[in-house]
Amino acid sequence: MNEVMQSLLSRRSIRSFQNKQVEEEKLQLVLQAAVLAPNGRNQEPWHFTVLQNAEILNKLDELVAGKGNTFFYHAPTLILVSIEEGNPYEQVNTACALTNMMQAAHALDLGSVWCNRINGNHEIDTKLTEYGVPVGYRVTGTLALGYCEGEYPSPREPKKGTINYIR
Ligand SMILES: Cc1cc2nc3c(=O)[nH]c(=O)nc-3n(C[C@H](O)[C@H](O)[C@H](O)COP(=O)(O)O)c2cc1C
To answer: Residue 112 belongs to a domain with what CATH number?
Structure first.
C-alpha cells in the first residue's frame, strides 16, 4: 500500500511515552503540518505554544488534572493550540491542526494523543499567558507528543454501519 495511506490507516492515540525528547527536526515538521492545515477562510486564527520544560509540564498537568493525576500522560512535549476568541470556526480549525499534527507525528514514528481543551480557571489562564498563549486567544486543544512506550497499538476496528452509498 502507498506509504501515506498506510500511515493514515494505522495512527493510534498514544498515552504512554518514553523519557526521550522529540528531536528538533521532527518537532519542526509537526509544527509545519499544523500551520499548513486547512482552516476556515485561510484566516490562520491560531497560535501554537510548545512546552518542553519538564518542570513546567508537571506544574501545568497538576493544575489541570489535580495532584497525582495526569491529563497529558507525562509526554515530553506538549503543543497547546489556541484560537482567536470569536473565530467562528474555532473547534473545526483546532481539529484540522491537531489531526494534521497527529498524522505528521505518526509518519515520523512519534506517538501523540489529542488532549481535550483545558477548562481554564484564573490560575491556569494566568499560567497559559505566561507561557506565551496570546491574550485574546483560547486554548482549544492540546497535543501530547513523544515516543511511544511499549508496543504501538494495532489499527482500531472501526464501528460498523457508518457509511452508506447511493450509486
Ligand atoms: C475532540 C477530541 C477530544 C479528545 N480528548 C481526549 C482526551 O482528553 N484525552 C485522551 O486521552 N484522548 C482524547 N482524545 C482521543 C480519543 O479518545 C481517540 O482519538 C479515540 O479513542 C480513538 O482512538 P484512536 O485515536 O487510537 O484511533 C480526543 C479526541 C478528540 C477527537
So the answer is: 3.40.109.10
